[in-house]
């Protein structure tokens, strides 16, 4: 029904209404349309909380920000316990390549949020970047880091 991703498939509450699939989003506390991108987002976020120790309560989904006077929405943002943004997550559907344009999109979001970590995923490929503002460099990290790593615990 939905494509196999290269992360463990989460146990998700999926229902079908008419010809449309809906999924329960625990962050937004409502059912949302299950698009291919939403499939990636839900599985990725559940992977973070179930396998990499991210607390559910530190993740905001569909967070609105202003970029160049335009309203934009980050797919997800991870915060520390004081409300400081730690990571921006951008999800694409599985058949969308993680192209330079996707990198540009998350970089624009980061001008506003100024996080140290960026995570881009289409469910099959994941790119984790660490931004060092002091040196002006960006380093690609081979694996998705645990919450302990991104929060400095």
Describe the structure.
This protein has helices at residues 36-51, 100-113, 147-151; strands at 14-17, 20-25, 30-33, 59-67, 70-79, 85-91, 117-121, 126-132, 137-141. The chain has 153 residues and is α+β, with helices and mostly antiparallel strands. The chain has a single domain (14-151), classed as Alpha-Beta Complex (tt1808, chain A), CATH 3.90.1570. The chain has a 6-stranded mixed beta sheet, sandwiched between helices. The chain has a 3-stranded antiparallel beta sheet with strand order 1-2-3, with no helix packed on it. A hairpin with a 4-residue loop joins strand 7 and strand 8 (126-132). The protein is globular and about 50 Å long.
CATH architecture designation: Alpha-Beta Complex
Helical element count? 3
Please give the domain count.
1
Q: Catalogue the unreliable spans.
A: none
How would you spell out the order of helices and strands?
Answer: EEEHEEEHEEEH
The CATH topology name reads tt1808, chain A
Summarize the main sheet.
6 strands, mixed
Sheet with the most strands: spatial strand order? 4-5-6-7-8-9
Shape: globular
> End-to-end distance, in Å?
39 Å
Radius of gyration: 15 Å
Rounded average pLDDT: 92
Number of strands: 9
Binned strand content: 35-45%
By CATH reckoning, the class would read: Alpha Beta
Helix fraction by DSSP (H/I, runs of at least 4): 10-25%
Structural class: alpha+beta
